[in-house]
Automatic annotation (TrEMBL), chain A:
Cross-referenced SUPFAM superfamilies: Adenine nucleotide alpha hydrolases-like
Function of the molecule: The electron transfer flavoprotein serves as a specific electron acceptor for other dehydrogenases. It transfers the electrons to the main respiratory chain via ETF-ubiquinone oxidoreductase (ETF dehydrogenase).
Assembly: Heterodimer of an alpha and a beta subunit.
Organism the protein comes from: Haloechinothrix alba
Name used for this protein in its record: Electron transfer flavoprotein beta subunit
MF annotations from Gene Ontology: electron transfer activity
Domain Electron transfer flavoprotein alpha/beta-subunit N-terminal: 23-216
From TrEMBL, chain B:
Superkingdom to which the source organism belongs: Bacteria
Protein's recorded name: Dimethylglycine oxidase
Sequence ranges assigned to domain FAD dependent oxidoreductase central in this UniProt record: 373-428
Gene3D superfamilies named in the record: Aminomethyltransferase beta-barrel domains, D-Amino Acid Oxidase, subunit A, domain 2, FAD/NAD(P)-binding domain, Probable tRNA modification gtpase trme, domain 1
Similarity annotation: Belongs to the GcvT family.
Domain GCVT N-terminal: 430-709
Domain FAD dependent oxidoreductase intervals: 9-370
Automatic annotation (TrEMBL), chain C:
Family to which the UniProt record says this protein belongs: Belongs to the ETF alpha-subunit/FixB family.
InterPro entries assigned to the protein according to its UniProt record, in alphabetical order: DHS-like_NAD/FAD-binding_dom (IPR029035), ETF_a/b_N (IPR014730), ETF_a/FixB (IPR001308), ETF_asu_C (IPR014731), Rossmann-like_a/b/a_fold (IPR014729)
Highest rank taxon of the organism: Bacteria
Function: The electron transfer flavoprotein serves as a specific electron acceptor for other dehydrogenases. It transfers the electrons to the main respiratory chain via ETF-ubiquinone oxidoreductase (ETF dehydrogenase).
Gene3D superfamilies, per the entry: HUPs (3.40.50.620), TPP-binding domain (3.40.50.1220)
A Gene Ontology biological process term: fatty acid beta-oxidation using acyl-CoA dehydrogenase
Listed name of the protein: Electron transfer flavoprotein alpha subunit apoprotein
Binding site for FAD: 209, 234-235, 248-252, 265-272, 286
Keywords attached to this entry: FAD, Flavoprotein
GO molecular function, one term: flavin adenine dinucleotide binding
Amino acid sequence: MDVLVCIKRVPAPGGKVLLSADGTSIDTRHLGFTIGPHEECAVEEAVRIVAEHGGSTTVLTAGPPEADEQLRYALSMGADHGVLVETGTRELDPQATATALTEAIRLLESESKPFDLVLFGNETADAGHYQVGVRVSRALGLPIVGGIKGIEIGTGRVSLQRDVADGVEVYDAPLPAAAAVKEGLNLPRYPSIKGRLRAKKSPVRTIRPEPSPGGLRTVRLRRPPEKEHETVVLGYGAEAAGAVVDVLAEKGLV
Amino acid sequence: MNTLPDRADVVVIGAGIVGNSLAHHLAQFGWRDIVLLDKGPLPDPGGSTGHASNFVFPVDHSKEITALTVDSMQQYEKLGTLTAPGGLELARNESRVEELKRRMASAKAWGIHAELLSPSAVAELVPYIDPSVIRLGFWTPSAAVVDPLQSGVLMREQAIALGALTVSANTAVLGIDTERGRVTKVRTDRGDIETPTVVVASGVWSPRIAAMAGARIPLTPAVHQMIDVGPIPELAETHTEVSFPLVRDMDALMYERQSGADLEIGSYAHRPILHDTEDIPSIEAAQLSPTQLPFTDDDFDPQMEDALELFPGILNAPGAGVRHAINGLLSVTPDGSPVLGETPEVAGLWSAAAVWIKEGPGVGRVLAEWMTHGTTEIDVHGADISRFYPHQRTAKHVRARAMEGYNKIYGIVHPSEQWESNRNQRLSPFHPREEALGARFFEVGGWERPHWYESNRHLLEEFAEHIDDRPHEWDARWWSPIIDAEHLAMRNRVAAIDLSAFAHFDVRGPGALDYVQRMAMAQVDKPVGKVIYTPVLDYRGGFRSDLTIVRRGEQEFRVITGGADGARDRKWFGDHVPDDGSVVLTDVTSAVATLGLWGPRARDVLSALTEQDVSAAAFPFGSARELTVDGVPVLALKISYVGDLGWELHAPFEQGLHLWDALFDAGAEHGIVPAGIGVYGTTGRLEKGYRLMGAELQSEYNPVEADLALPKVKSADFIGKEAYLKAREQDAAARLCTLTVDSHTDSGGTRRYPQPHSPVLTTSGDRIVDNAGRGSFVTSAGSAPSLGAYLLMSYLPPEHAVEGGSLLVEYMGERYPVTVARVGRTPLFDPDDRRMKA
Amino acid sequence: MLLVIVEEDAGGVSAASLEAVTCARHLAEGAGLDLHAAAFGAHGDLAAGLSKYGVSTLHLVTSESTREYSPELWGTALAELVEHTGATGVLAASTDRGTEILANAAASTEQPFASNCVAIEPGDPWTLTRQRGGGILLEDAELSGRVKLASLVAGSVEISEATATHEVDVLEFAPTPQATMPHSAIVDRTSRGSGVSLASARVVVSGGRGVGSAEGFAPLEELAELLGGAVGCSRVATNNGWRSHSDQVGLTGTKIGAELYIACGISGATQHWVGCMGAKTILAINTDPEAPLVARADYAVIGDVQEVLGAVLERLRARRAAA
């Protein structure tokens, strides 16, 4: 099984997002970067699948040269190869991202052989376009299901599971296939020291495609307005229990 | 959510370990109406206290840092927030083995139990270490892990219980108002507080807070990288936060400690990464906390390999990974010491910054004591914010020294090691000549002072019989036998010494006499033209300073003090100027260049350049005269710190170079040589038994013990008088003695030269402690070429302060026999001072 | 012509879809275009439900290959319908399926798609506002293309009827069978059975760091059961292994729309907030009065979770026993 995982360099969560003065990008001065949680699960899953079924894991990212850091993190988790699709520091629209990824994957596949499984995060933690994985898969002619929280590799087929509002759905697809996965698929490992040292020394390949822009153009970013409101403090400790029950009663819950 | 009082006796800004401890101790000392503010939430407001590694190794080469640490450990223990698994400092290479032996001497000097352990003994204590990587371990059983956040909670609770403290978290300070140089008000986003006293205990934010009042706290935030690796089964099995000893892998500049199932690894080996206080993210914008910045892998990776080498087993445990990694911010100062005390710029504005977790509670207590009584039990002059001259408080200097000093945190630092960055800031007018003469410059207070001159190398031959070379590199580092040669040339002929680093204050006005009387222990009400040497005491009767005062007129005095302590003395004198305008204190340091001229031929040289009578009768020892020396107006003082005939010549700064050239021209036929501070500060003065501020003279000792008590006590009041009188009535707990080293040869046959801070032991090797609890250690050490001896100074309790008595000194892991050559101040060289008075 | 995908809920058009219809009508009116709707595998009478909302035609996609859900096949069918009808814009609600179908259709037609929009204005290009990072940020953007596709976040548009009611023409559309296209197929579906789903629960009792342990969730479970709600948790609780990921409320977990959200010992990082901000009323229980979620909550109790919940449960049990 040769597994490809597409990841994205995104700001680590935790802090309030500050915007650049012109509002077209976020202020990254104080930010650390990470792989989005969905994609971290994708890397973990790929490493586990390869450990069980053999083959290799390739991680690929489209982004600025600094995304090398995220590739190396994935390598330190156990991925075998890293590919940086260098698309500059400005964020691409989803069509352009998909084109860049598709071109890069075609190039990689033309040099060796097609990947058996391609994993994406369900949506990126920052832009959240919910479509890059679908566009790439469809361009490559791969079936793809989103929201995946369980993957089972069968003979020539893969079984994919996802949560829906009222239960669980199981999909079946022929290999090669793709899936857009969600956090909860597994619990990603922390990179071992050896893994980190190995990752540091691993070569990372760089591809520089030149995709043309798609139809979605960002004008500016802004923070949603905070609703002005007062918090009603019902009380302190156990003494507040009466007031809590009153609220529940008011809502018709008791 | 909480309301602030509109006035307070003191506002402490910052609820880290220092602010909490300070609030607690102020309450204990009887302060009420204390307000403690923090911009962040409690108990972890987001400063360095919240992400520190929290371990405490008590032994430091610095006596004051060790004292603060030991005090802190006692406080942590009392709060129940200390666990002591013990700590190991490891040597991988030979120079570190030597350093650990030196550390052993420091442990002994400061009275902390420690042992040197073989690699296999280390591996018994920490089974997951690979002993083949190391050569020696330094084991401190009392090394501990503490919980500073919980300690802070308890300290606040105690102060609140006393009704002394209001705490306000999530409160940002917007400004600090001053009036006529005094703090009046703290403005916050939750209201204003009128207060006469503000303490900046704001860690890495301290420069920003101090700047609101117009003061500078010289520190810079710097990154310290930390990672957590786990889970590790061997550690998890202990079911404790920490059971295994803490490890400092000194040569890798790293530490490793158990933290539950994880091994926490921290590093001081990576490139210095400095931040601007202004660039620290806000609490909101920070991903973890404002002082836990995103980890930068590239900087840490080399250390990872070092860690893997030392702990191969557990760091490769299956499933163990890097669970947490940060670039933590901590405060770094230009000289690595804390920044404590009232700022020189703004009265009532105190600094409590650049403090490690290990010193936090002690610093709080010491500062509270200082704020309450004006003086401290532990001598903290090395941490006093007023030690910095103005240029040393600039961002440029702070950054340059922090950059240079960062990797010294775990480095092997020779006690005389010189800084390389931001040098050549304060140059005497003689500097071009000194450079041409091959001066080796040492820095004091930013001044470049020749320590010796390579141009004098030829003297080594002349005095070969009287000069010992030092075969061991460590003993000879930052030293040259030329110092001894310059010394002998001075004793035989005459030498000129650049003393322009002295600080000079003019005191004038109707209240001048009363004022200097109050400052000085000695009688200053002497006839015009007299020079008075005097200790300056603190309120507890310990040494604050020692200096020279010249009476230049009925209402005019010149105070001359050493360059090392000039800035501190400037603040001390400035703080005590009366409010009534009767005294004007002017710092004239930058206007005066000073050249010392000493030696049996000094009078021959000087008299060739002046028409005035400089004979002993006309210009007696201990007096001052205005001379014209080759047309240069000079204030000449007939005194000597090196014990020879001669003068301190104080000239207008811009005529200094002319004075130098004139003296060297006239001195040529008398064999004049330039001599460095090696002679002035060590060899010359040690032979004469002269004490040095910061070495022998510390606030923890009094004039009786230093044998600087005067025959009579003046009737005028002076600071420390009460304590001084008391000390005179009591038997001294220790007396300052001069010792000679009887044998220099170590077990390998190499001659060694014990350095300051070496512990002085009984002949059976026991530590010597006086009845005030102070251990005996070497305060100064150096050769006495005119005596053919190597001298040490040390305070000894009465039973050992016996001339002719035998003792031992421990140095670099070995012991050397010494003899008490002198008890008290009478010089070993020229005991009757005939040379100076000739 | 603009096309809007409608999903079924209890035999009628879902509320989220009616929002999309309202938004699409606004766009159609602004451009003087017709408004059509499309539905996959519908069972109920959707046409009747749409007549008041300005939809002139409903396309029912019916074929053997699209009978069961398949993202690729449904998306391809939609693309074919778009070409067939000449639609210049397609809207759907930002549901899992709505988003997935639009993404697939956008991929098939190679046209742009803006997901998670909260507002769209007519014109060419469309000017729109979409959510990033689950709503942490808003992005003002322009969408231009031969066919524009967009999905609309539930709750962003107030549903409104058209000025006039029209009979809705119903047309069946049978897409071309995709015999060779590799695609996934749904093979199993298990229903949650009993228990209330987190996304749709009226009450969610959720716990974070302040709960302290897996066992610490017992009173939360009891309270949820008493109130007929579901138990949720923060990322801290999931990462500590106290709860399974399916209970996680937040950006990478479930976004809830409960009547009441009871947050126990959750400080409320932005990533959590975007998961619970859809709740009508928030009650936060936390020892830290300055915690972000306390500041954003409607009601707050300052105190230890176990202590507060213990007292609340005692009262509720007493009430129940009395009743």
